[in-house]
Amino acid sequence: MDRTDRHYSADITDPALLDRKRNEILLSLADKHDVKLIKKSRATYWTSDKRFRVASSISKRYPQSNGEPYWYGYQGSWRDFISQGEVGYFVLGGMDLDIAFAIPAEIMESKLDDLGTTVRPKAMWWHIVLREDDNGEYSMRCSRTGNHMDLEPFRFSLDRELSPR
Questions:
Q1: Three-class HEC string of the chain
Q2: CA-based angle 36:99:135, to the nearest 5?
Q3: Domain annotation covers residue 8
Q4: pTM
Q5: Is 58 among the domain residues?
């Protein structure tokens, strides 16, 4: 099946389940960096001093995607937000994964020209597609260059209990 023949479900993931998964991911990331994150918006978080910033996105698995099971959009406002901190991450999670990826803002910035985009009159975003190989390792598809980025250096486990900080 080529890309033009793909059919994806329009099923929307329950927002409460997305929030639970995002919470699990962000609590694990906060523990890893020994910080307390404060919610700024549904997808953006920062520390009280605003030095450590995160934009997070969650995807369901698209099983009929020929090895590219997770799809995201990276918004310009998130780019601006994470780049304004001393430490910034774009964090990607999957609803069925017990891992996530925290990509530093400067790494994301260096890959933007390699990514596909969508431009609308009032918005623009980059297409983030995760590739999964036969060994369960992930990379980010860079459609414009074919120089896909290995995500394993940015991988972390969701090994924390869901207890409040």
A1: CCHHHCCCCCCCCCHHHHHHHHHHHHHHHHHHHCCCCEECCCCEEECCCCCEEEEEEEECCCCCCCCCCEEEEEEHHHHHHHHCCCEEEEEEEECCCCEEEEEEHHHHHHHHHHCCEEEECCEEEEEEEEEECCCCCEEECCCCCCCCEECHHHEEECCCCCCCC
A2: 155
A3: no
A4: 0.88
A5: yes
In a domain, 2, yes or no: no
pLDDT tens for the 165 residues of the chain, in order: 344 444 444 567 788 999 999 999 999 999 999 999 999 999 999 999 999 999 999 999 998 888 899 999 999 999 999 999 999 999 999 999 999 999 999 999 999 999 999 999 998 999 999 999 999 999 999 999 988 999 999 999 997 554 444
| Residue where the block lists tokens 């990276």 | 74
Take residue 64 and report the two structure tokens written for it: 């009929």
Residue 2 token pair: 């080529």
Question: Which range marks the domain in which residue 117 is found?
Answer: 15-156
Neighbours of 54 (CB within 10 A): 28
| Residue indicated by tokens 């980025």 | 149
CA atoms within 13 A on the CB side of 138: 23
**Number of domains present in the structure of the chain:** 1
